[in-house]
Amino acid sequence: MKKYYHKIYWITTFFLVVLATNSLFAEETQKGLLWEIDKPGLMPSCLFGTIHSEDPRVNNLLSIVRNCFEQADSVSLELQMDIPTMLKAASAMVFTGTQSLEQLVDQAFYAQIVEALSQYNMPSVVVKKLKPWAVIAILSTPPMKTGEFLDLLLYKKARQLQIRTYGLEKVEEQLAVFEELPLSDQIALLKESLKRLDEMPMIFAKLHELYLKRDLTALMKFSVEYMRDNSDNKALSEDFYKRLVDDRNLRMAKRMQKRLQEGKAFIAIGALHLPGEKGVLKLLQTRGYRVSSLY
After folding, report:
1. Which segment of 4-8, 58-62, 69-73, 95-99 scores lowest on mean pLDDT?
2. Phi then psi for 291, rounded to 5 degrees?
3. Element at 36 (helix H, strand E)
4. What are the start-end ranges of the H helices in 140-199?
5. 264 with 73: CB under 8 angstroms?
6. 57 within 8 A of 208, measured Cβ to Cβ
7. Are 280 and 260 contacting, i.e. CB atoms less than 8 angstroms apart?
8. What string of DSSP letters covers 235-286?
9. How far is CA 258 from CA 79, 120, 243, 253, in A?
10. DSSP string across 62-90
11. CB-neighbour burial class of residue 120 (10 A; exposed 0-12, middle 13-18, buried 19+)
12. Measured between alpha carbons, how far is 203 from 197 in angstroms, rounded to an integer?
């Protein structure tokens, strides 16, 4: 299961696509993936919006991003990408004891899950122990080819350059967003995911297209429109989005303060955490920082 630990990141991207609401983005267009964060008396820092992808168009960073990264005194990601974190994330995806996915759903639905996971070469003994949210995480991405997604590459590069690394959240905090969902809600979301499974390649192609255009507002609007057309339970979606995005924006904006006060920080978080009235860019502005798009 360890190789699936990074699905925690992918599931965040997935729910950002399908669970947004009208109030999540501002009227003005916010465009840019790399932002300078500045305040009088402090050395400027960089805030970089990521997408959890193996795509070389994403992972081959431009020189302006590399320079900011390599000159940084610290690198902060959503999570530390070390082995203990990987193991905690992986172990959280499966039931312990006698409880199993096979017991939670009817036989026909379980057979549908097994068939959907077959392309991931997952043995049946693992499938039946997966939690519903973990199945959503796995199915919301194409089968892995390299396992080298952007956040992990940034972490590895920082370690190679001996730059201090930090996590803005603990893995337990990210997991709690999913773990605290009642099983009935997880199953409801899983059913929605399976209904839209054939659409996932299109969704991620569009996400990559908008990401590469650096248009944060369009990225957010796409998620809003998709939710309108596809969510069967908007109340559940909106509540989950608040905990998944808005609450985490507040936590990450607060915890990056120490690094920003030190100056010359490179902070990388999912691009969809940046825009909107409740996004991290706006939260930093309300704390007296000047945010300027560099790229």
Report:
1. 4-8
2. -115, 130
3. strand 34-38
4. 150-160, 171-179, 183-195
5. yes
6. yes
7. no
8. HHHHHHHIIIIIHHHHHHHHHTHHHHHH-SEEEEEEGGGSSSTTSHHHHHHH
9. 16, 41, 23, 10
10. -HHHHHHHHT-SEEEESS--SHHHHHHHH
11. middle
12. 10
89 exposed, middle or buried (CB, 10 Å; 0-12, 13-18, 19+)? buried
Report residue 121's pLDDT band, with 50, 70 and 90 as the boundaries.
confident
Q: Are 285 and 274 in contact (CB under 8 A)?
A: no
| The residue type at 197 | L
End-to-end CA distance of the chain: give it in Å, rounded. Answer: 37
What is the rounded CA–CA span in Å between residue 219 and residue 221?
6
Residue with tokens 């549908």: 112
What is the DSSP pairing of strand 265-270 with strand 45-50?
Answer: parallel
Q: Domain ranges in the chain? A: 2-18+31-84+147-180+200-293
The length of the chain in residues reads 295
Evaluated on CA atoms 211, 213, 215, 218, the torsion sign reads negative
Q: Which residue has the tokens 């997935």?
A: 14
Q: How confident is the model at residue 1 (pLDDT cuts 50, 70, 90)?
A: low
